[in-house]
Amino acid sequence: MDVLSDAIAAMRAGRPYSTLTAADRPWAMPFPAFGGARFHVVVAGRYRLTGLEEPAVLLGPGDAVLFPHGTAHTLETATDGPTEILCGAYQLDQARPHPLIQDLPDVVSLPARADRYPALQASIDLLRHELAEQSPGQDAVLPALLDVLLVQLIRAWFTARAGLQDTGWCVALGDKAIARSLRAMHEDPAHPWTVESLGARADLSRAAFARRFTTLVGLPPLTYLTWWRLTTAAHLLQTTDAPLSAVAQRSGYGSAYAFANAFKREYGVSAGRYRHQRRTDHQHITEWVPGEAEVEV
């Protein structure tokens, strides 16, 4: 998979939630801090977003807002008459966030721009239609649509930030040379990559590649590669029954012994204990009960 897809997959913990809320009278809903990500998209009427460090934000039809780190906030109607809003939440493991997600601000605000974000608008329309229709097969369709919407929200933010930043993941993924090297690491983390071979993928000299990668990503190439290998291993431990030797091999470690030492040094527990603990935690997370503003899909 590509880097953004991998980042989301590595942090996923349970099913997403969503609801389409229509009302004819004023209402307010507090959203407490949440170990995942939330989003709101205004369909009709106007809403006020409060409870943040910055001044209240007024949202109108088509405006979208994403809380990548589950920041607490309050949403209330700010107009008379009918209102409608699309809300949702993604359960993400924030214990070890991917730096791409961590790099996002607490609040990602995307004003309505159908001309600039056509794919985002199409995703919103499809999700709203599916929630409104209650058609057969909805349980299969909604999670996929929510995944698409999360990707489109992040993509739209990267597009909005293009040219406004000199470093960071939105710049790194837009840099063709660095993006090629990142994709190579993600597609085959077990490959014996070196700075020189990664630089060759980027069509840069070893020194030029190392400088550029470190500047944009915030970590040296091999430091990020090690981080991703161990993150891949942790994901395999949570989601498969593969023996530790196979997890070590698929994560780029030549021996189970080397893998065991590296894993314990990074996570503070053995790989076997981590597998048991995280599967227990994952089961607990999937039993999370949504609040009044959300319903499970």
Topology of this structure?
Blueprint: H1 3-11, E1 17-23, E2 28-31, E3 36-44, E4 47-50, E5 57-59, E6 64-67, E7 73-77, E8 83-91, H2 99-102, E9 108-110, H3 118-133, H4 138-161, H5 169-174, H6 176-187, H7 195-201, H8 206-217, H9 221-239, H10 244-250, H11 256-267, H12 271-286
Antiparallel strand pairs: 1-8, 2-7, 3-6, 3-8, 4-5, 4-7, 6-9
CATH architecture of the largest domain: Sandwich
Basic shape: globular
Q: Supply Rg.
A: 21 Å
Q: What sequence of helices (H) and strands (E) makes up the elements? A: HEEEEEEEEHEHHHHHHHHHH
Number of helices: 12
- How would you classify the helix and strand content by structural class? alpha+beta
Biggest β-sheet: strands ordered side by side in the sheet: 1-8-3-6-9
| Strand tally | 9
Q: Please, how many domains?
A: 2
Q: What features would you describe in this structure?
A:
Helix 3 (118-133) runs antiparallel to helix 4, helix 9 packs across helix 12 (271-286) and helix 10 (244-250) crosses helix 11 (256-267). The chain starts with a helix and ends in an 11-residue tail after the last helix. It contains 12 helices and 9 strands. The protein has 297 residues and is of the alpha+beta class. The strands form 2 sheets. Strands 1-8-3-6-9 form a 5-stranded antiparallel β-sheet, with helices on one face. The longest helix is centred in the middle third of the chain and has 24 residues, at 138-161.
